[in-house]
Amino acid sequence: MTQLNARIPEGPLAEKWTNYKASQKLVNPANKRKLDIIVVGTGLAGASAAASLGELGFNVKAFCYQDSPRRAHSIAAQGGINAAKNYPNDGDSVYRLYYDTIKGGDYRAREANVYRLAEVSGSIIDQCVAQGVPFAREYGGLLDNRSFGGAQVSRTFYARGQTGQQLLLGAYSAMMRQVKLGRVKLFPRTEMLDVVLIDGKARGIVTRNLVTGKIERHFGHAVVIATGGYGRAFFLSTNAMGSNGSAAWQVYKKGAYFANPAYVQIHPTCIPVHGDYQSKLTLMSESLRNDGRIWGPKKKEDAESLRSERIKPKDIAETDRDYYLERRYPAFGNLVPRDVASRAAKERCDAGYGVGSGLAVYLDFEEAIGRLGKHVIEERYGNLFQMYEKIVDENPYETPMMIYPAIHYCMGGIWVDYELMTNIPGLFSIGECNFSDHGANRLGASALMQGLADGYFVLPYTIQNYLAGEILTPRIPVTQPEFEESENSVRERLNKLMQIRGKQSADQLHRKFGLHLWETVGMARNRKDLELALNDFGALREEFWTDLRVTGSVDEFNPELEKASRVADFIEIGELMARDALQREESCGGHFREEYQTDEGEAKRNDDEFMFVGAWEYAGQGKDPILHKEALIYENIKVQSRNYKI
Amino acid sequence: MDFTLKIWRQENAKARGRFETYEVTGISADCSFLEMLDILNQQLIDKIEKPICFDHDCREGICGACSLYINGHPHGPDTEITTCQLHMRKFKDGDTIVVEPWRAKPFPVIKDLVVDRSAFDQIIEAGGFVSVNTGGVPDANAIPVPRADAETAMDAAACIGCGACVAACKNASAM
Predict the structure, then answer these.
(1) Cα–Cα distance list, B103 to A38, A188, B79, B171 (Å)
(2) Which pLDDT tens digit goes with each residue over A367-387?
(3) Domain that includes residue A350, residue range
(4) Which of the residues A91, A188, B90, B113 has an alpha carbon 20 to 30 A from that of A257?
(5) pTM of the predicted model, to two decimals?
(6) Do A395 and A489 have their domain in common?
(7) Which of A130, A174, A505 sits opposite B42 (nearest CB)?
């Protein structure tokens, strides 16, 4: 076990980024033209990075599996983006955003990265407004803010319930401008299947053209992985159907460390599971908790009657409703962080107070409609209410929404240092795909902030510090043996998947594995289940590689093959998640070990032994991965138990 | 619910396409249209036949990937939603449902119900952007924008780029 060095700049916290920029190496314009950068993924992080790097004069190649970069799953983010602008004059500051993020992450995020994130947050809003992003505005014409979980200020900027869409269109259009100028070359419907290392440095990738099936090689002086999270390992999640962890997993297998895989976020307000044919869950924005009140019945007999539909929620008298978040957490009420809200919902349902199928609670707008009028609620959340009604066939203006937690986001991911570079020189990771900023729990509206901070304002600087040392490296021909080997291994793996010729489809195997992962490495974990799970996952991996059926062939448009390849990786990712959850003998943020809780059922950290980032190194097939630790040092914040009660 | 499906099958961009008829039975009314296709595809895989290809991704109506011309309407009979948000309760038990890809020259078929919509990226590339670089922009509140203007802008910007307008238009024009 080695101690990892994050290469955090010296100096006081508030001066680190300024000092870094003042002393880092830069690449002059003439040399930028000679350098190629590969960006994999075109969500907020990937598209903003590709656009910015193109503007600087680098040659960028951008890859996405979607038919258009504009469809990356960042587009589905609803509620908003945080920034420490303090426009509402309610006491916000860079320090407070940093403080809330560290505390929200349960003191498991890296201080210097988080401070930098808070520092550049304001510039993101400036940038997006300049691009024409139509953020919500007050009647006076200035920008409006709302509040989100885990904060006592209103620092969230939003564009109705489609903030992710609008920010992505901004980044996408900025990138398309560079495409037209020839500085970014776009490869849609293309999936990265391997990273190529030459003399220990990342030098390119091997991809599959998803339309023709053609395997292709691409060189880059640096490779940036911006492929999002691995939440779909659980099968049911709020992620897109194509969202996957495969690019991250391939670089892990080439030696990049994978940090905190057990830290996954379970979002408290999703539409509950309603059938076994489902393949995807739908999120209802956290912003709804600004005005919606979460409750369950106080009496078990009422819960039973509600479940059997003998009575309706409006039949429950006000005094018989348990607004359990307001009861347990008076200071933050319905706006406690996501991990806290999710666990509280599970606690209610496990105790027999669930409604609907038994795994649901209410999110009620009656009080808000009475206070503000229906038109205000419609203005704020109209599209979300419409979406709910289309899916569930109930009118949320008249009857409360039913909600239940679901897998939503991965705080864990590829380990990166302060420069967002992995332990492999020249290999960077940005956005949800890396582990760096959210600790053990991400606050609402901070994913968009981090994706765009990394892509617009951090990577375009830090990557130059590396590339300055590469200006004499000529473009390496893809005929080099390392590319050849990589392509061969990719072909071999795809052929292997095709040749199993078993009985079960990738979806069937994925569902089986994912639901088991949810039961054992989901909202509540314990040693016994995790140990059993590790065993079971091995058996499921075996089942996958002996009983998978992929129709069609490698050399054609073949979604079944794409799925199979991703599911093979999900199973391995799930194993690492279980291993990491087992290793971390404490509860923190989204990682809740049943053995480690307070008398009141709150997460109980063990700072003496576990205040570190757990970064796993691949040791080869069939071998146990090796755990490396990066100590977390907090010099500017008092580490304490999270308290959202007072 | 039971349905008869007449679905466009086309091996690749150059192959000749045809309608194939499939039966699905015991479908829940709460099942989405794409989940119904998932069920059909599993049946095909069970028979070692090639499943039907269709574009889809977020399945929450925002990415714009899903398409499908259903009974002569883009995204089917419901209003203001995409195919992924269309639920089988909008059909009658025993209905015959005709499913085609987007029918428009700028969107050539790639396979079955999947079409090539890169024409839309070309539109954005040609000028669908504000010409500002990263950094060096004024404070976000430096220029107030009347709320009504911001709302109108948002109405237009909410387009998900699915291509339904092109598929519905007799001239195959985008809105």
Answers:
(1) 35, 22, 19, 11
(2) 999 999 999 999 888 888 998
(3) 267-405
(4) A188
(5) 0.97
(6) no
(7) A505
